Amino acid sequence: MILSNLSMQAGWKTEGLPADRVSLENAAIITSCARYPLIIDPQLQGQTWIKGKEGSAMQIIQLSQKGWPKKIELALGNGNVLMIESIGQEIDAVLDPLLSRQFTKKGKNQFVKLGAEDCEVGNSFKLYL
C-alpha cells in the first residue's frame, strides 16, 4: 500500500481498526485525504476506530440536536476534532462553506463563513462525517 506502511497499519489496529484489507485501505484514504471524509459505516467499525484514534477530546454531534451550529463554531475556533453522526442524504446548506473549505485568510488566521458569521478555524480542526 502506498498511502501507509506497516507501522501505521499496526497503530490503526491498536486503535480498534479491523485488520481486513478493505478497512486498512479505507483508513489510509481517511488519514491522507485533503477533504473531510464522509464515512458510510453501517457496522460502525470505522466510527469505533475514529473514536479510538482521536480519543476523548473528539466532539460528536448530530444535526438533529438543538444548538448544533454553535457547537460547530466552538469546535472550529478551538481546533477540536468533530464528528457529525447520522447525516442523511441532505446536508444543511449552512455547512457548505465548511465542507468545500471556502476559507479566507485574515492575518495569520483562517476563517469560514457559517451562516451570517465568520468563524475562525483552528489549525488542528478535523471533521468526520
Helices and strands: which structural class?
A: alpha/beta
Described by the principal axes of the CA atoms, the overall outline is globular
CATH superfamily of the largest domain: P-loop containing nucleotide triphosphate hydrolases
Radius of gyration: 16 Å
Element order, helices and strands?
HHHEHEHEEEE
Average residue pLDDT:
89
The count of DSSP E runs of length 2 or more, i.e. the number of strands, is 6
The strand order across the widest sheet is 1-2-6
Low-confidence blocks of residues? none
The biggest sheet amounts to: 3 strands, parallel
What would the keywords be for this entry?
single chain; 129 residues; alpha/beta; Rossmann fold; 2 domains; 3-stranded parallel beta sheet; 3-stranded antiparallel beta sheet
